[in-house]
Every structure is written in structure tokens, then in C-alpha cells.
Amino acid sequence: MLYRTVPKNGDKISTLGYGCMRFPGSMFSVDEERSIKQIRMAIDAGVNYVDTAWPYHGGKSEVILGKALKDGYREKVKVADKLPHWMCKSAADMEAKLDIQLERLDIKTIDYYLIHSVDGDSWQKCKDHGVFDFLNKAIKDGKIVNAGFSFHGAPADFAPIVDDYDWTFCQIQYNILDENNQAGRAGLEYALGKELAVFIMEPLRGGALVSAVPPEVLALYDKSEQKRSAVEWALKWIYNQEGVTCILSGMNEEEHIKQNIDIASNSPVGCLSEHEVSILKEAAETYRSLQKVPCTACQYCMPCPFKVNIPMAFSLYNAKYLLKDKTAHFFYIGQLGGMMGRKAGLASQCTGCGVCIKKCPQHINIPEELKAVQADYEGFFSRILLRILRLFF
Predict the structure, then answer these.
(1) What is the rounded distance in angstroms from the CA atom of residue 283 to the CA atom of residue 216?
(2) The CA-based dihedral angle spanning residues 187, 190, 196, 200, taken in that order and rounded to the nearest 10 degrees
(3) Is the sign of the CA dihedral 201, 205, 207, 210 positive or negative?
(4) pLDDT for residue 28
(5) What is the C-alpha separation between 22 and 7, in angstroms, rounded?
(6) What's the Rg (C-alpha) of the chain?
């Protein structure tokens, strides 16, 4: 296993981290025994960073991870967990949630603690509710060691959040298709300039980048003398870049764990040649050319007067059809449905005002395409799911 250094504290973190969001089983029915064996299998192979959160598997993820850390495994890893800020109205609420998490994990200290899934709006609410006082006290009391945040927002939201606190690290969604989405490469470089460690989530877009690879992309990969699987191409694109500390992977098959460990162990910064980087750039462009909506996520259409998150709506719509991403619908509801402290940004909020059409460099009829997204993602059962999730989150 290879390790990279966290700039602000000198911790040596394995370049592969274990994400505890996709244990074997389902979101609410987990094969606990197998999950514990898999976590320990990864730790035995050198993985020393494990990541969980309050809502994963309906609250079971933290408990199962805590059990996996028995028998001496706690001393071998850094534990990461996340504050469910949407459930908190004060610093006292935040501390109460942290205490429950420590109890679930059955540990005294969380090494890396994140404010979970923030954007500009939800981060402002966190500040209004006393997040700075909470973090400072939690660190002083020894309940957490390092503070960070995970980010799902517009590119412009990222730098102000970085600048608001003395963070040790951040977590961003980043892969060959999200190079310019959300925080993107610009955010990665900004965090690097501020000496933040950067942890990467969704490196394979929930597996979509490797489960339904278009023939046109496979043909590009075949142009390389070095033959690699789609998984290896996607992960090496990230490992190749300076500033990436660790890639989080939600592994729930033993063979996938072995494969991810093998790739991580052979992927230092600079592991790809210029020719190979160019192949991956062409592959990303090919993916985009095959999208249902030819949106490049340039953000020129934003902000929408009616708060529709146009780029994310199209990205998740494209993911369903181009990438055969089975999680895209759920993430659409989760990320655009007005939960976790965010404002709603659903396609159904579009009034057809047409302001965005004039701004779009791709000349997309955005209101018409949003109608298609709404018809696909906001049907009767989706509305029921949205109501249920809003109660939960």
C-alpha cells in the first residue's frame, strides 16, 4: 500500500480509503458478519482510513464499523465520521449528535470529522447554528482531532467554505466526468494551495464508470500499449494528480477489495504518461458527446431565478442513461430535493422563463430538457420518496 501525507498534521494516510456506505446487503439490511470481515481484510492489506456517516445504512454503518474496530483494529486506522448538520439547530445539538456517534462507534475520539455534504446555503445555516463553537469545543475536549467538510455544491461555493475555518482536510466528488463539476479540479488545486488534504468520493460514479462503458470509450483505452481495466483507468486518473490524499471506495465484494488495493499499491503521483492522460481526456469528451443532454456543466446558466440546479439535474439525468447508474435517481432526490440543509433545486421548479437559454454556450433548450428530467425523475413514487426522505433528513 502507498501512503500520502496530510500537510497540516503529518499523518500518513493510505491512498485507498474504505467507504462504509455500501456494505453487502441493502441500505437497510446489511450482512454484518461479511461487512466486518471485508473491513478487516482491507485493514490487514494496509488500508488505514475508514469513513462512515450518520445516515449510512439507516444508522447501522457506524455500529458495524465500531464492531469491526474491535480486537486491535482501532489502533491500526484513522476513523472518519460526519456531522448530520441538517438535524441540528445549535452547537448543543451538534455535540449531542457527536456523542451518539462516539457511542455507536464505541470509541473515545474520531480522528477525522466532517461537516457532511455542504454547499453555500447549508454551510450558511451551519454557521448560523454555531458550527465554529462546536468544532472548537469538540477539538478541545478531545472528541475529534481533525476538522473537515464534504462538499456537494456549485464551484463558486467551495473556496469561501475553505477560507471560513482552519480545516485540516476536505472531501470532494471527483472523477473523469466530474473534473469541472462541483469543486472539480479548480477546487482540488485551491485546497492544495491552502494545505488541505483532499479525500475523493465517487471516483467511479457509484460504479457507473465501469459497469456500462461505451464501446467508443473502450476503443480509446485499447489505443494504449499498457492494457488496463476500466476501473484501473478511472482510479489512476485520480491517483496521478498531486494534491489527492486518498480515494474512498465503497467496496462490498472481496474481489473488488483486492483489485482496488492492487491498483492503489501501484499508482503513485505521475503514474500515467502524457499519452495516457490524453487518452483519458478523449474518453471523458467521448462520454460527454454521448450524453442525453449535451451539458458541459460550464455553469453559465446559473444562477437560475427559480433556484433550479440545472447542471446537477442534467448530470444525474445523463448518468441514468449514459452510465446506467442505478443510484442516479436516488441522488437526484437526495441532492436536489431540499434536504440536508440545502434549498431545493428540482427540475419541476422551472417556470420556462428562458433566461438560461440565452446564456447557454451549447444552445440547449434548457426548459424543454428540464421537462424531460421532471417527467423521468419526479413521478408519483418519487414524490412519495421525497416526502419520506425529507422527514428522515
Answers:
(1) 8
(2) 20
(3) negative
(4) 60
(5) 29
(6) 20
Expressed in angstroms, the distance from the first to the final Cα of the chain is: 37
Taking the C-alpha atoms of residue 79 and residue 362, their distance in angstroms, rounded to an integer, is: 44
For residue 308, the model assigns a pLDDT of 95
Closest CA to 241 of 207, 279, 192, 282: 192
358 vs 134: CA distance, rounded Å: 44
H or E segment at 185?
helix 184-193
Which residues are registered as beta bridge partners of 5? 12
C-alpha cell at 377: 425523475
Task: Walk along the chain (393 residues) in steps of 10 and give the mean pLDDT of each run.
Answer: 98 98 80 97 98 93 98 98 97 98 98 96 96 98 98 93 98 93 94 98 85 90 94 97 95 95 98 96 91 82 93 90 81 84 90 93 91 92 80 70
Per-residue confidence (pLDDT) for residue 327, from 0 to 100:
82
Nearest to 182 by CA among 60, 331, 286: 331
All cell numbers assigned to 22 = 455500501
Cell of residue 75, nine digits: 489502533
Mode of pairing for the β-strands spanning 12-14 and 3-5 = antiparallel
297 conformational bin, left if phi > 0, alpha if psi -120 to 50, beta if neither: left
How many other CB atoms are there within 10 angstroms of residue 226's CB atom? 12
Q: What is the pLDDT of residue 27?
A: 52
Q: Nine-digit cell at 207? A: 460504479
Find all residues with CB under 8 Å of 76, minimum gap 6, and list them. Answer: 43, 48
State the pLDDT at residue 26: 64
Q: Counting beta carbons within 10 angstroms of the beta carbon of residue 80, is it exposed (0 to 12), middle (13 to 18) or buried (19 or more)?
A: buried
Give the Cα separation of 210 and 204 in Å (integer).
7
Rounded-to-integer distance, Cα 88 and Cα 173, Å? 24
What region does 344 belong to: left with phi over 0, alpha with psi -120 to 50, or beta? beta
**CB atoms closer than 10 angstroms to residue 352:** 11
Asked whether the beta carbons of 171 and 150 are under 8 A apart, the reply is yes
Asked if 108 contacts 72 with a C-beta cutoff of 8 angstroms, the reply is: no
Is the peptide bond between 303 and the residue preceding it cis, with omega within 30 degrees of 0? Answer: yes
